[in-house]
Design a protein that fits this description.
alpha+beta, about 45% helix, six-stranded mixed beta sheet, elongated, three-stranded antiparallel beta sheet
Length: about 230
């Protein structure tokens, strides 16, 4: 009986330990899920690349967001030069709403972002063909145990912008214009025809009224003459 009790006790304690581990695992998973949802996010927006002409100025967009807030948020921009990372600028945003002091390491780079709008975008002036490639926006929030986040924006430099073939668009617009014009002409002709028909109906009614009046007058005159003829002289 004692051995049975000891076996039962060990099995119960084993089940308790496995239950505790399961609960602990679920708690960690929930915490990680909540952390990932509320953590820092870095993005270049809806467009991740741009095609620009040689010699123009290009905006390299980057914005961040965090549901848990930021403190001493570090960010920088890098350019990937055939695998070699060239730092363009860097700064630290102490807290939300405080503008950073940005260190610029490239003469044609200008910081145009603002912490008030979670914007850490930069301008690249007077681009050349050598500027073509990937630009990495990097950010790290100490509130997330310094987890790294980044987004890539690709720049393509061309000598001239591609001309868009609008032939199909012109054809469609021309056809639609022709159809609309034809419909308008038909409606105008229909309105004129209806107008003239109504005028003809009015004239016909006037003619009928006048002719019936004349008939009644003639009938009255003829009846009067007959009465005069039929009266005997005294």
């Amino acid at each position: 009986m004692a051995s049975v009790d000891s076996t039962g006790g060990s099995s119960v304690s084993g089940r308790l330990r496995s239950g505790d581990l399961l609960h602990a695992g679920l708690a960690v998973a929930l915490l990680l899920g909540a952390w990932s949802v509320g953590g820092l996010e870095v993005t270049t927006g809806k467009v991740s690349s741009i095609e620009a002409m040689n010699g123009s100025t290009v905006l390299l967009p980057c914005i961040y967001s965090s549901c848990i807030g930021i403190k001493n948020l570090y960010f920088n921009w890098h350019y990937s030069d055939n695998g070699t990372m060239v730092k363009l600028c860097e700064a630290v945003i102490p807290i939300e709403g405080v503008e950073p002091r940005v260190s610029i390491y490239h003469e044609r780079v200008e910081f145009v972002g603002s912490s008030k709008s979670n914007n850490i975008s930069i301008l690249l002036w007077n681009i050349t063909f050598e500027d073509e490639g990937d630009y990495i926006c990097f950010a790290r929030n100490p509130k997330e145990k310094n987890r790294n986040h980044s987004a890539v924006f690709t720049l393509y430099v061309v000598d001239q912008m591609k001309e868009v073939d609008n032939t199909l668009t012109v054809i469609i617009v021309s056809v639609l214009g022709g159809v609309i014009g034809l419909v308008i002409i038909v409606m105008v002709i229909k309105a004129l025809v209806v107008h003239f028909l109504l005028k003809d109906d009015e004239k016909n009614k006037e003619c009928l009224v006048s002719s019936s009046g004349n008939d009644n007058t003639e009938n009255g005159l003829s009846g009067a003459k007959a009465d005069n003829k039929g009266t005997p002289k005294a």
